[in-house]
Amino acid sequence: xxxxxxxxxxxxxxxxxxxxxxxxxxxxxxxxxxxxxxxxxxxxxxxxxxxxxxxxxxxxxxxxxxxxxxxxxxxxxxxxxxxxxxxxxxxxxxxxxxxxxxxxxxxxxxxxxxxxxxxxxxxxxxxxxxxxxxxxxxxxxxxxxxxxxxxxxxxxxxxxxxxxxxxxxxxxxxxxxxxxxxxxxxxxxxxxxxxxxxxxxxxxxxxxxxxxxxxxxxxxxxxxxxxxxxxxxxxxxxxxxxxxxxxxxxxxxxxxxxxxxxxxxxxxxxxxxxxxxxxxx
Amino acid sequence: xxxxxxxxxxxxxxxxxxxxxxxxxxxxxxxxxxxxxxxxxxxxxxxxxxxxxxxxxxxxxxxxxxxxxxxxxxxxxxxxxxxxxxxxxxxxxxxxxxxxxxxxxxxxxxxxxxxxxxxxxxxxxxxxxxxxxxxxxxxxxxxxxxxxxxxxxxxxxxxxxxxxxxxxxxxxxxxxxxxxxxxxxxxxxxxxxxxxxxxxxxxxxxxxxxxxxxxxxxxxxxxxxxxxxxxxxxxxxxxxxxxxxxxxxxxxxxxxxxxxxxxxxxxxxxxxxxxxxxxxxxxxxxxxxxxxxxxxxxxxxxxxxxxxxxxxxxxxxxxxxxxxxxxxxxxxxxxxxxxxxxxxxxxx
Lengths: 281, 348
What we know:
By secondary structure, chain A is mainly α. In chain A, 77% of the residues lie in helices and 0% in strands. Chain A is globular and about 75 Å long. Helix content of chain B is 70%, strand content 0%.
């Protein structure tokens, strides 16, 4: 008796399930598709047509050229790349060294040190920028690329955590046999621990890379110089002179999104895993 | 090389010196299922005695050097931690008791005046209410993320496509998101055009109308962050062994019962993490409203106001007091959360 009812109910459930999924995709994609179409339009089309009307010529790349040149995107890419290379390297080194010290040694005040790192993780960095700015200024690093690099490198507790969890899964017998062969702590770190940390390093590089590429606050505060625009700040400044030229602004936004999309399509699985691993404390 | 014969000989000795942390390492690494110490039977080393061996002096390297090593590794990290995390917090406190303008050599002490100002001048206090929009948005966001994670953890066609699309906004640059939604919310922009298709006509000032502006901006925050929450939920749900569901199904459990008794307990830690993130996130909103409205029409957030005061109006004292209050809220909330949901795992 109940079988047909269950079938009908599960039938509606399936329809509802797909309906909500499709709706979610529309909500996610619609704002981006509208901007993509706008980027392909001429300024006349933008002024006369609706936001959702398709562009006349789907291969009109002129706005992208304007955005790339007038928006100083090349320089933005260079500066962002510079920040990426140094802060990701720094984070990996600092994070793995700290994790090695905490994970493999017993020392006095170890609990205190760990508590200090954990407590610092609770402080949202954006709230302390007023005081951090004075410190970066004190070192004379305002309007250099090193200010943001130091901040990215120095305050990343999540990556320490990722490394720590991973180091604990590396058998200690490896350290011990190396120690018996006469290796000192630094050699063990460099020759044994660090190479085995590869999966954790990949995780940290991905999480950090996404963060640095997308970060706006640090370059905005610490690199106000016109020659020091990153991808984010160049895009931000591009809007000023192009105020109402939505076709150009849209093209700029799309240019900034494309690298993220490419990386996402290539590294999907690593990104999902990295984020899940980074979050599950 | 991890030659078993060579480690087998040396292990008992070195194990004694290291066994203290070995124990704590064991507890945590256990769940990763990594084989540990196959050559030393655990029975040989009763855990109770191991701590004593820790204090035994090393043969080859001096005890002093051994004590120093971890500190050498943490020299730079600790220096960074002090300079970029703790000194700023201490300085914030110090500045907050002064009327410093940010550059003059003197910092006139004003006591608690900045704090009194913060809580008594309505235009300064208003920003607290703006947080509530984002807090409400995070609740919506968590609900949506949990729904889609649950749906996609069962059999669904085009699973990966749906997953990718729902997640992708999280990867998009914040400035680009702001521009996308400036266009989206423009009068006659994307939203108005889309509404026209389903029969709702007219121009709306989604960002210009002070009653709507914060709702619109909070909506952007939902669009941006649901994907992250969703992927985290999905990861937690998928780490639940599949035979749990099979067993439940055999016992005749409905989908809802499966959610209530299998999924919900499995994602508890993620929920408590995301709750903290939601609260500290909603008081530190900056980027999107700053780029989209610059704080106009009542959309000034706590951080926008703090930055304006510090970097534009040279009221570093007042801005610092605001930051201290912000910090205090985050810490208190985290503390309460820890009290309510005690952490089973310890990092040390």
